Amino acid sequence: MDRWFLIFATVLAVVAGARGLLVLRHGQKSHWTVWWMIGVMLCQIGYLGIRGEMRGACPLRSIAEISVFLAWSLTLFYLLVGPVYRISLLGVFTAPLVALFQGFALLPGKLDPTPEKVMNTTAWGETHSAMSVLAYGALALAAVAGVMFLVLDRQLKEHHLKSGLFRFLPPVRELLVSLERLLWLGMVLLTIGLIAGIMMPHETAGAWKHVFVASGVWAAYVALMVVKRVRGITGRRFALGAVVLFVLSLGVFAFV
Amino acid sequence: MELVCLGVNHKTAPVEVRERFAVGMNRLGEASQNLLEMAGAPEGVVVSTCNRTEFYLAAESASETFSKLEKGLAEKVHGHEEPFYRLEKKDAARHLCKVVSGLDSMLLGETEIFGQVKQAYHAAHAAGATGPVLNKLFQKVFSVGKKVRTQTRIQEGSTSIGNVAVELAEKIFGHLKDSEVMVLGAGEMSRLTAQALVSRGAKSIIVANRTHDRAIELAEEMKGRAVRFDDWLGVLKNVDVVISSTGAPHTIIHKEEIESVRRARKYRPLFLIDIAVPRDIDHAVGEIEEVYLYDIDALEQLAEEAKARRVNQILECEKIIELELLKIVK
Question: Domain range for residue A214?
């Protein structure tokens, strides 16, 4: 049943992205994206509820589970941030990423149909997992806003202003403000996750390696934010930084 | 009861004729009452804008109404050949639909006309000059106008340089209330562009001109402040939009100058509008990452593209109007 919820969520995300792009191509606003994404969220909650019950803990024990949790976190932040900042187009950019993360989890052999119950959970361990993945949701959305900025920046620089996409992209300044706020939010959550990660019991050297790499990611984000605040940075480099750091940081989950 | 329309507009009469027919907004009701007397008709509305004056009437006989109107207006057309167009029944209703949709405007798709016709109708209604025929007609026509504007792209894009500049500035900065604008050169073009930005809420205007007195004059007009021309770089730190339109025979803004203030500006986006010929801003300035540089050709091209897009929408608009006319005139 958990798999079916995930399949539905992925189909809805694909529909949200594809329909949004189609509507944009016709030069109209994608009013329905937010509703499709609410549907995605409801299916994700269904999946997480069942999977959490099966695990007896937060379902973050395999790369596929982490991937789905990340997709949920991304959807959550989109629904919180998108409508508030009137960035409806953010959904059209977010939906494909959500579909990608969930599609990865749906690959054959990735999601164990009968997952083992987790017996030895600790509060620090659970906090570390949940906060880190939530942080990555915010940072992923910041990366999405970064991509939107890069697209708009290129169109404005090269005077290519005819596309439907250009008409509905939010202004440069608004995108940069959203990007910065999302990075701050991600940073706060990541800091909590990292502290919890240091405090949790470490039985293997691999666990410390994970914390060490996560600290590196955290430091890189801090550096980006400090440069932005203190010295200033061009919008293009700031957006590119958010995108590159997010892609690199995914490696922490994937390989370490 | 027959619907008739007699009018003059920018296509049929020069401004010296149109101005004789012009009616101020506050006198539209009274003008509608006078129209009824002149035409001997029970219902009438006078629509008057800078490009047109039109008389809409519901009358027993169209030909009789036209001749009475022409007789009454003969004095105003004295010395000019036939400035009127005469439309009846469905043609008159179709014309009114086109007028409120902006299809008959000098600036295709402009939005102001919709409000102006509405005001004219309300004034006539308040003066008791309308009845069941015109009330029904105007209400239906307003909904057709709304439909045309929402279901087509007839009002999309900016068709003047000033508005293109505003649209781009809003695409970069969002609300302009937090944006500072600097004007280099106090010529007419820069004044118009700056005015367009101010009308959209730009926070403040700084004017620099070789003749400082002219800068002060323009700054006062815009409720901004003037700086000496040699000091423009010093105030660039807080500026978001620069409009340059000096008469200099060579470029006055170079890459090195903008680069010297980047750090102080914390690399914030900077929108440079160069409407001078020869150009004021060195093309290389556009290579700076956070700078968006548009010269007069780029702005004109964008305005032309918007106009072309609007022209492409005419058929679409006319289709909607024809379909709706079937419901209005049975």
Answer: 121-256
